[in-house]
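Class prep. Sample record?

___
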Amino acid sequence: MDNSEVVSVLNELIETSKDGEYGFTTCAERATSVELKKTLSRRAGDCATGARELQALVVQHGGKAEDGGTMAGAVRRGWVTVKDALSGHKDQAVLDECERAEDVALGRYRKALKHELPSAVRQVVERQMVGVQSNHDQIKALRDVRARS
């Protein structure tokens, strides 16, 4: 895999990470539970850290790193705002949207790992995917607990 292909794969993951950062921040702002706000804000910070790590790899491979999210991510954040306004179960709606976004992120990481990435890049992507899976599982567990309440 040449450097331009590596850069392309990494830039897609940067956009995914930025979507996560912006999405978790938006959801934290919409949540009513203080504990949920803190959890979502931490997840936003984790996504920002992941994006910076990927941006450094892009530069190492001679590319220009993305610094924003995707249009689809922006649309999802807008939907969170609309759904939030219409829902009587604000935190539940926020968690539903967070889980959907994490499903998308997992799919993008799985897609990236189908490429023949350099070993050092693959290690970072695999490690970050474990974090995305952890985020997904935590959000799903919180959502399930709230749904039973």
